[in-house]
Structure to design on (702 residues):
């Protein structure tokens, strides 16, 4: 057992004593939320409330576990499995608020609390996972599960929990369990360190400040206005600021003819965590790698990848590697052709240089104009954020009959956040949706979907979900509303798909309701992207922000024709990151890794061309070091096989809003997604195994 430092223990006791004296009056987590739909009362939650609620939540769950263990009755489903499944209610309640906001609206006090919590929660969950008496009861139910007259879902819950405990080390001898505890605690702290370093490197440690208006040549006015707003926010008057948020750096690389400035900005992006300063992540990454190999070995696996992927649809690392390399071998020649196209433009314009990574966006944009006569700036006026939001709501309504009603009476954690009540076609309440749109210093980069309350079952009745969907989209300026690139449009549809999955989930048991393999997770999100660019859908939501004009047919045609534009680059940079992830986690012996050398060797081994770097370099690869996608970044393209095949079913039916197919997809792939293995659920919808052909055709790799 780890000795908590005296000061931390003293603080915990002080806070716990304080909150016990006046729980209901002072701390919203200790009572039922007195808000519409019981959403979190963000207007009443203070950072001082978190630690006492966590400590009390862990204490309550520990008491609940002791009650299970000390039950004198023989272990059965209700007194062991169900009791465990429903334990930890307060801990879950505070965790869902704290960790969501720690990603989307953090501050130094929350970061400090996260560091204090890390060893406490690591120990708490290890105490449960390695509780021998609890495991004995679970194992007893597992061994008799077919004799207990359980239904199929109860059997599945029993099997899942038994497997969880084994995979978490419950069968290990005491000395190895002690070793595992130390590894888990160190990993939790390292993930925090990585995250904080990356947040600083992305939001605080770099900005491109332009003082000469000549250096803005070639940039669209909306991009210039955005840079002026960023300068104003940074307290820099009369200048323009470009940051490492995607809505800022990507348009600069697309349109600025200044090669030196493009390189400076892009280097700022791809050198994050690799600058030899106090925020450098190389040592942190190396420690995580070593510890993950050690953990895999302790649990009896040859590698961390083998440990993770065993529970996925892919089952083995070799299956993943084979799948990725099949796509790599198809995509790399396409990317090389794209290089030649861009180099021809450079040579034609008299450039005396070879294409480099910071040139790609600029010359790819020229290729797009030449081949398709399409410019992102032609499209953006038709993609106001509000139009895109209403468009994705419309698609969901046409598919599933649900509606979204704006609520202004629900507390929010940041002024720009919008809230919606979601209702079924018959008017029945389905859930609540939070939408958080814009970048800020307190928010991580990227886009993601979490929940403040999961759909489930409590006290014999269903509980509705409270979903939280977070983006980093182009902000409004003084002269225009938020105007999105088409990539940002598909990002909105993508994360919205995750929200629909969360809203639709049905199930009586926490362990299985909506609980799907990692390489299934992206199916509900990616399938929604397909509707974003369909002509029928575009005509309904893409309207000019000034005139209200429906997007012209000629622009729709250009979008369709350019659907495979730059696909070699997009696929190669993604696959490079996926293969790098697999190489790190296929290591079979703990060793000190020189992260940059390892990355270079991995990329050289697959023949990555110098004009492209992996979508995520090792030192800012948040997905795999602190984001839950270790040995799993491949899942996006694995799930894309499913989503392309699923949407193909709608296309083949002749109706992209086919309600019969939508009903089956909702039932088998969303509501009941955790009822059986991922491929089993998919086959229930599709009636057959998915084909890879629609994916290859979509990406132009066939």
């Amino acid at each position: 057992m780890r000795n908590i430092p005296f000061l931390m223990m003293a603080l915990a006791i002080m806070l716990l004593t304080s909150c016990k004296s006046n729980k209901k009056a002072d701390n919203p987590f200790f009572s039922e939320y007195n808000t519409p739909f019981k959403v979190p009362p963000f207007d009443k939650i203070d950072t001082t409330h978190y630690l006492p609620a966590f400590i009390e939540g862990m204490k309550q769950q520990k008491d609940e576990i002791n009650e299970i263990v000390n039950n004198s009755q023989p272990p059965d489903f209700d007194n062991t499995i169900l009791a465990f499944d429903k334990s930890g209610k307060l801990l879950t309640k505070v965790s869902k608020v704290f960790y969501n906001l720690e990603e989307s609206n953090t501050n130094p006090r929350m970061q400090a609390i996260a560091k204090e919590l890390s060893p406490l929660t690591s120990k708490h969950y290890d105490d449960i996972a390695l509780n021998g008496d609890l495991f004995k009861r679970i194992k007893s139910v597992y061994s008799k599960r077919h004799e207990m007259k359980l239904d199929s879902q109860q059997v599945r819950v029993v099997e899942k929990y038994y497997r969880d405990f084994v995979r978490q080390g419950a069968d290990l001898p005491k000395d190895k369990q002690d070793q595992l505890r130390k590894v888990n605690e160190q990993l939790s702290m390292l993930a925090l360190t990585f995250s904080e370093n990356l947040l600083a490197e992305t939001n605080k440690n770099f900005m491109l400040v332009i003082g000469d208006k000549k250096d803005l040549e070639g940039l669209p006015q909306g991009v210039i206005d955005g840079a002026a707003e960023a300068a104003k926010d940074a307290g820099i008057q009369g200048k323009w600021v470009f940051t490492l948020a995607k809505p800022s750096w990507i348009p600069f690389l697309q349109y600025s003819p200044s090669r030196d400035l493009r390189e400076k900005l892009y280097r700022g992006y791809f050198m994050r965590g690799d600058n030899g300063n106090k925020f450098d992540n190389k040592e942190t990454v190396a420690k995580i790698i070593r510890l993950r190999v050690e953990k895999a070995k302790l649990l009896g696996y040859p590698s961390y990848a083998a440990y993770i992927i065993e529970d996925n649809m892919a089952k083995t690392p070799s299956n993943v590697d084979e799948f990725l390399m099949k796509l790599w071998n198809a995509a790399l020649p396409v990317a090389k052709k794209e290089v030649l196209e861009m180099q021809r433009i450079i040579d034609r314009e008299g450039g005396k240089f070879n294409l480099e990574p910071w040139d790609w966006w600029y010359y790819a944009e020229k290729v797009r104009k030449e081949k398709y006569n399409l410019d992102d700036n032609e499209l953006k006026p038709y993609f106001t954020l509000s139009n895109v939001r209403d468009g994705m709501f419309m698609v969901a309504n046409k598919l599933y009959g649900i509606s979204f009603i704006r609520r202004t009476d629900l507390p929010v954690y940041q002024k720009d956040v919008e809230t919606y009540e979601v209702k079924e076609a018959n008017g029945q309440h389905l859930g609540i949706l939070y939408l958080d749109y814009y970048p800020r210093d307190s928010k991580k980069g990227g886009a993601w979907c979490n929940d403040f309350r999961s759909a489930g079952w409590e006290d014999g009745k269903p509980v509705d979900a409270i979903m939280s969907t977070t983006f980093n989209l182009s902000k409004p300026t003084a002269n225009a509303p938020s105007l999105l690139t088409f990539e940002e449009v598909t990002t909105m549809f993508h994360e919205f798909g995750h929200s629909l999955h969360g809203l639709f989930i049905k199930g009586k048991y926490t362990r299985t309701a909506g609980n799907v393999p990692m390489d299934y997770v992206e199916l509900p999100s990616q399938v929604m992207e397909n509707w974003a660019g369909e002509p029928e859908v575009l005509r309904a939501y893409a309207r000019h922000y000034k005139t209200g004009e429906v997007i012209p047919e000629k622009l729709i045609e250009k979008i369709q024709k350019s659907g495979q534009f730059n696909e070699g680059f997009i696929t190669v940079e993604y696959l490079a990151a996926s293969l790098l992830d697999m190489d790190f986690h296929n290591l079979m012996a703990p060793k000190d890794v020189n992260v940059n050398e390892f990355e270079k060797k991995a990329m050289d081994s697959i023949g990555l061309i110098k004009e492209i770097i992996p979508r995520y370099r090792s030192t800012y690869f948040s997905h795999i070091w602190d984001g839950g996608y270790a040995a799993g970044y491949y899942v996006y393209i694995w799930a894309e096989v499913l989503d392309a095949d699923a949407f193909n079913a709608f296309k083949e039916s002749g109706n992209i809003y086919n309600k019969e197919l939508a009903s089956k997809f909702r039932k088998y792939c969303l509501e009941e997604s955790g009822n059986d293995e991922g491929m089993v659920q998919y086959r229930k919808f599709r009636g057959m195994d998915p084909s890879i052909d629609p994916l290859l055709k979509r990406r132009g790799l066939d």
